[in-house]
Amino acid sequence: MKRSFNPATGNYVFSVIRKMLVLILVLFSHFAYAMKSPQDILVDSIESDLQSFFKERLKYQEEKISIALLPLEDATGVYDKDSQIITQLLVGRFTLNPIFSIMQLSSVEKTFAELYPAKKVDGLSQSELIALGASLHKQYLISGGFFRSDSVAYLQLFLRDLSNGILIYAPMFRVPAHELGEGKTETEVVNPETAKETMRHEKVEGSVVLFEGDMPGYPVVDFALFDLGKGQKAVAFITTESFAVHRIDPDNRLTRIWTSEYKTPFPLRGLAGHLDIRQNGDAINAVVSINKFKHSFLYKWEGEEFKIETNIDGFVVNRRDDHWLVSRYGNGVISYSGKNTFIRDGMSDEGKEQYPFQLPVDYYAGCILFYDTVNPDLTKVGVVDEGGVIHIYGAKGQEKVKATGVYGSGFDCLESQEVLYFAATADAADTDSVILLSYHDGGINEVWRSRAMRGAVYDVKSFDLDEDGVSEIFGVLEQGDGGGKFFVVHPVFPY
Predict the structure, then answer these.
(1) Smaller CB count within 10 Å for the chain: N or C?
(2) If residue 461 lies in a helix (H) or strand (E), which one and from where to where?
(3) Beta strands in 103-165 (DSSP E)
(4) Given this model, what pLDDT does residue 181 score?
């Protein structure tokens, strides 16, 4: 007897078969993942992270991303074998990935050794990195290695744009404190772009940490950090309505310990000011400059509060040792006047010498880079002008160096290992970043920038919070609701 085909029954059978095949594939994929070595899992995370960075952050649309890779290093003495395995896995993975074009590892090593036989990549200047890129015929270079921070191990990668000679990305991958090759536990990977609670209490290069707890209830005009003594640190804020001090607790929390509200609050629009706090032994003094007054105010920290001492002629822009960069506010109302800028020794108005230091531009922020008491003409000052351009001026307003990029109004100077650095902002209204620039080899070069943050960074200040000899960068992040978030950035120093 001939049996006819029933479409309904046939569809049901095919549906069951299809579901079984999907289930088998899912089970196989889980089995395959479980069989992956810790090195493979780590390489998966690295490949995914870098691919996302190029596509989402750099909006890369070219057919191939041209990269070179240097062998990963091990500074722990534990991951030497794993660093070699992961280097080879990365080369293989990028070779198979259709969006990348990677150079042979042996060719990269040979070219680098021929160009810079006595150097490592983190010791190359901007011009040397550009020359390396020209020799490799590749635009991007990946380097990095394993290191420990306390009992935690990390794999730190550095992605450099060789066409511009700058560091553009430094993802951090957290690794368990054991040998990867032994496969004792599953590898945990933490990227500072997305890490939250796991990174809160750790100082990791490249990370951005938001503080919790008390913030001023009014818009922040400026801030400064100082040492309270007995191992305690603090941050002071001047706002539209108050002058306040908050203790910085070890768990990245702020606790308000003193506040003084103004008799009359100021509207935020058109308001500008600067807060400078310096310490000499146990003496702590603060200078507050606000453009609603014709002079600055000197405060002294006494016990648990700031008390006003005297007025100071002009608006204090910056202090270096006992030398003060002073100005008037300029044509832009919220900017300092370049033509009315001078340098003076000490805070007293009596018996102190003043040296005119006229600048050809009005500026939002500035700092004294070098000052010679015997010959003030050797003085150098760095400023960010009203257009967001960073300049370095010598005596008589002679421009020494000018940065090529455009930055925000936040600006500060910090030093590390005999290289002068600037902290700046990206001047983005809702996706701002903190930027590290170096004054090195006679030029101002961008060497690193933080991840984009949700908001605008109002100002940045450097301060060595943990007293390890390396400055952190602090800032206030405005998020459009009149309030702000205080944060710390642990910059990546390439030199």
Answers:
(1) N
(2) strand 456-463
(3) 140-149, 152-161
(4) 40
- Taking CA atoms, 439 is separated from 184, 205, 390, 391, 424, in Å, by 46, 20, 11, 11, 13
pTM passes above 0.85 = no
Q: What is the pLDDT of residue 483?
A: 64
C-alpha 95/C-alpha 266 separation (Å) is 60
Question: What beta strand segments (E) does 70-130 contain?
Answer: 73-74, 100-102
Q: Which residues contact 410 (CB under 8 A, 6 or more apart)?
A: 365, 423, 424, 425, 457, 458, 459, 460, 475
DSSP string of 293-332, one letter each residue: SSEEEEEEEETTEEEEEEEEEBEEEEEETTEEEEE-B-TT
Interior/surface letters 220-247, b for 16+ CB within 10 angstroms, e for the rest: bbbbbbbbeeeeebbbbbbbbbebbbbb
Q: What is the pLDDT of residue 20?
A: 57
Q: Alpha-carbon distance 455 to 476, whole Å?
A: 10
Q: Along the chain (495 residues), what's the average pLDDT of each consecutive run of 10 residues?
A: 46 53 45 60 87 76 84 81 87 90 92 91 83 93 78 79 82 61 36 33 61 89 91 93 93 92 87 90 90 90 91 88 86 86 72 80 91 79 92 90 87 70 82 84 78 85 84 85 78 63
Is the torsion defined by CA of 250, 255, 257, 263 positive or negative? positive
What is the pLDDT, as a whole number, of residue 246?
Answer: 96
Q: Which two tokens stand for residue 469?
A: 């000899």
The two tokens of residue 132 are 């390396």
Are 272 and 255 a contacting pair, CB within 8 Å? no
β strands within 403-440, DSSP E: 411-416, 419-425, 431-432, 434-440
Calculate Rg over the CA atoms of the chain. 27
Q: Is residue 273 packed enough to be buried (19+ CB in 10 Å), middle (13-18) or exposed (0-12)?
A: buried
Dmax over CA atoms of the chain, in Å, equals 122
Show Cβ contacts of residue 149 under 8 Å, excluding neighbours closer than 6 positions.
202, 203, 204
Distance CA 188, CA 38 (A): 9
pLDDT value for 415: 60
State residue 153's pLDDT score: 75
